[in-house]
């Protein structure tokens, strides 16, 4: 056998073996025999090795494809098991649990923050973290910035930037639908679209109000529900100001709709049906009592049965029915493993009607956010104009203020960080009103603070939304928002799509990770820019954020109630 044939046999025999020792022996054997080759044989050997190399190169793409398939299979399986990412992000394009986490309910993803380096991607010698920091920051269609990496939420869970982007854009799609129902009419034009107000059995509304004295253990709500639920007058603030409770919207709206010009007394003349069920008060009365979930759900179930006894309910399968709920959506969407709230909005009968809430569930199209009730209830256009002139001229002695309380039992809250940043400013540019001491119980304390401030910090509290956002706006104080669900994703009929016209957005993740000093950042906003925002708030937004007195006669302005009703009627036109 020639040297060339010997080398080929070595390659074919030894090369099929996988051990490192076999490869080493093969190399040594070939080197010894190669020295005995002629020039012709050496060329032939080179061609032989090139053919072997070509075969190996052909196998590389197949190997790469094989490893990619393994990677995608393993990552997809992990995602489905840990958080149903594929179902949520790509099939339904809904991340319901994302918002549940921010609202304090049970999350789907179960990846603890501690498994990540500084709340970012898992780090191997810092390489992955550097890759994250090098990514270009994403933003939603409305321009809400989404920093790269993973983001901390309540319960020690995280969401990726990709999940956030999909979820946020999903919400923005729904807000576009809501805005398409906006009416251009300043005054209600019935055009045969009558509004019928059901006369419900008293257990669904009036009897609930009668429990005002012991509904909440530490406060008697009865005074708050006087004067058509506006509360007692606040003389110090002037005409039209009352001590209105944050959960009085159901009563206020009911009082207003009874006097609506499109109201009809005959069901056959109606196109819109208002159901005055005080579901918020029903939930509130059980919050602090040890009762079963069956008790909490009982009145809502009774109402569903009552509605199904009405022929009008089946006219459009409930799509022409409207509810006003004076608490946040999550109080009516109790999870199976929770004792908080009721399941009223999870009932099958409640899926088609429109629900007007102070805080909507962002992935439910028929949940529509409307403003929290403020302390201001003007009776006339002059009341609004007088107040506008007062706050446009107000002496704003402080750059920043925050009225609220820390959340020491909520480690994900940014409130303590904001408080520390505020009180550490020695120049007095920031004022902190500690609500845990009862200092915020008086409306004049809040309104006067906001009237004297350029910016008002509005971090999330027990839920993303805050009544304080509307208190700051009607005081001419520019709200600083840290979570888009606080305002931008809630009130499409009352706040503009361009949030930069009336607010400053600072992502709460940047605050939580100590990447920004909020007070120092606000100092850099020019005075002219602040003035333009304030004028827009006072002259363009303010009238539409307040609920007028039930006896009000507004002609130049639309208040929050009028805007809501006109858009509900416009929605009916679109449905037809």
TrEMBL record:
Membrane topology: Single-pass type II membrane protein
Keyword Transmembrane helix: yes
Superkingdom of this protein's organism: Eukaryota
Sequence intervals crossing the membrane: 48-73
Exostosin GT47 domain span: 190-518
Annotated compartments: Golgi apparatus membrane
Listed GO CC annotations: Golgi membrane
A molecular-function term among this protein's GO annotations: glycosyltransferase activity
Keyword annotations of the record: Glycosyltransferase, Golgi apparatus, Membrane, Signal-anchor, Transferase, Transmembrane, Transmembrane helix
InterPro entries: Exostosin, Exostosin_GT47
Family affiliation: Belongs to the glycosyltransferase 47 family.
Protein's recorded name: Xyloglucan-specific galacturonosyltransferase 1
């Amino acid at each position: 056998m020639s040297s060339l044939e010997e080398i080929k046999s070595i390659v074919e025999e030894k090369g099929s073996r996988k051990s490192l020792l076999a490869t080493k022996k093969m190399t040594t054997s070939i080197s010894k025999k190669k020295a005995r080759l002629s020039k012709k044989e050496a060329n032939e050997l080179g061609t032989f090795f090139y053919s072997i190399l070509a075969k190996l190169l052909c196998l590389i793409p197949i190997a790469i494809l094989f490893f990619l398939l393994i990677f995608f299979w393993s990552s997809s399986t992990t995602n489905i098991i840990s958080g149903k990412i594929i179902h949520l992000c790509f099939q339904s394009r809904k991340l319901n649990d994302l918002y549940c986490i921010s609202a304090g309910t049970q999350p789907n993803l179960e990846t603890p923050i501690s498994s990540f380096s500084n709340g970012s991607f898992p780090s191997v010698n810092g390489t992955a973290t550097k890759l994250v920091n090098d990514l270009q920051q994403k933003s939603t269609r409305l321009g809400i910035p989404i920093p790269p990496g993973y983001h901390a939420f309540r319960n020690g869970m995280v969401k990726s930037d990709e999940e956030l982007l999909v979820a946020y854009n999903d919400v923005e799609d729904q807000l576009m639908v809501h805005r398409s129902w906006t009416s251009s009419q300043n005054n209600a034009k019935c055009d045969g679209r009558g509004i019928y107000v059901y006369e419900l059995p008293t257990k669904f509304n009036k009897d609930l109000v009668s429990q005002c004295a012991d509904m909440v253990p530490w406060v008697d709500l009865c005074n708050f529900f006087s004067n058509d639920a506006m509360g007692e007058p606040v003389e110090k603030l002037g005409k039209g100001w009352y001590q209105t409770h944050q959960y009085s919207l159901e009563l206020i709206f009911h009082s207003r709709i009874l006097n609506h010009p499109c109201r009809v007394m005959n069901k056959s003349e109606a196109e819109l049906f208002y159901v005055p069920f005080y579901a918020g008060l029903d939930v509130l009365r059980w919050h602090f009592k040890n009762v079963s979930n069956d008790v909490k759900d009982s009145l809502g179930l009774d109402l569903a049965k009552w509605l199904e006894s009405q022929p009008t309910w089946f006219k459009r399968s409930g799509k022409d029915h409207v509810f006003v709920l004076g608490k946040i959506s999550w109080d009516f969407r109790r999870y199976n493993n929770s004792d908080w709230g009721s399941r009223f909005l999870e009932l099958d009968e409640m899926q088609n009607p429109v629900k007007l809430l102070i805080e909507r569930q962002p992935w439910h199209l028929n949940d529509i956010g409307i403003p929290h009730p403020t302390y201001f209830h003007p009776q006339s256009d002059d009341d609004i104009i007088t107040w506008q002139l007062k706050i446009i001229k107000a002496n704003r002695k402080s750059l920043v203020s925050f009225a609220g309380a820390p959340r020491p039992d909520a480690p994900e809250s940014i409130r303590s960080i904001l408080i520390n940043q505020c009180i550490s400013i020695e120049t007095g540019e920031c004022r902190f009103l500690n609500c845990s001491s009862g200092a915020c119980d008086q409306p004049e304390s809040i309104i006067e603070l906001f009237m004297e401030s350029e910016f008002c910090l509005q971090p999330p509290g027990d839920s993303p939304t805050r009544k304080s956002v509307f208190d700051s706006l009607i005081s001419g104080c520019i709200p600083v928002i840290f979570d888009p669900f606080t305002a931008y994703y809630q009130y499409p009929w009352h706040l503009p799509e361009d949030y930069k016209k009336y607010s400053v957005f600072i992502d709460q993740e940047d605050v939580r990770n100590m990447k920004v000093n909020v007070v120092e950042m606000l100092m850099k906003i020019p005075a002219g820019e602040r003035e333009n925002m304030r004028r827009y708030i006072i002259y363009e937004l303010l009238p539409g954020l307040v609920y007028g007195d039930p006896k009000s006669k507004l002609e130049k302005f639309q208040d929050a109630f009028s805007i809501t009703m006109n858009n509900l009627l416009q929605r009916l036109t679109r449905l037809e």
